[in-house]
Specification:
114 residues, mainly beta, single chain
C-alpha cells in the first residue's frame, strides 16, 4: 500500500511579494529550498496563517539569500505582503517506509536559514 506523507516543510515564513501579473507559482529563496529539500517545479501546499487560505502551486527558484517568498498569479490574491505562511510538500511511499521516514522541517528566522 502507498500513502502520502509530509516530506518537507518551511514553517512560518513571511510573504515578501505578491505578483498578480505572473502566470502562477511561488518563488522561494534557493537557500530555503535547499534547507527544506525542495526543488523547482515541485508541488507545494500553502497555508496562510493570517487569513486561513489553503492552496497549492509549484515552486520557482528565487535568488539565493534573498529571503524571497513571492506568490505569483492567482495565488497572489490569497496573500498580503507580510502574511505568515507554511509551505509543505508531500511524498508518496510504501506504508512500511513511511513508518520510519523523517520529513525535513525548517523553522527560518526572518526568512533566513539559521
Amino acid at each position: 500500500m502507498l500513502i502520502e506523507v509530509l516530506k518537507s516543510k518551511l514553517h512560518c515564513v513571511r510573504v515578501t511579494e505578491a505578483n498578480l501579473n505572473y502566470m502562477g507559482s511561488i518563488t522561494i529563496d534557493e537557500d530555503l529550498m535547499d534547507a527544506a529539500n525542495l526543488i523547482a517545479g515541485e508541488r507545494v501546499y500553502i497555508v496562510n496563517n493570517n487569513n486561513g487560505e489553503r492552496f497549492d502551486t509549484y515552486i520557482i527558484t528565487g535568488p539565493r539569500g534573498s529571503g524571497c517568498i513571492c506568490l505569483n498569479g492567482a495565488a497572489a490574491r490569497k496573500v498580503q505582503v507580510g502574511d505568515v505562511v507554511i509551505i509543505m510538500s508531500y511524498a508518496t511511499m510504501d506504508f512500511e517506509e513511511a513508518k520510519t521516514f523523517k520529513p525535513r522541517v525548517v523553522f527560518p528566522e526572518n526568512n533566513q536559514v539559521k
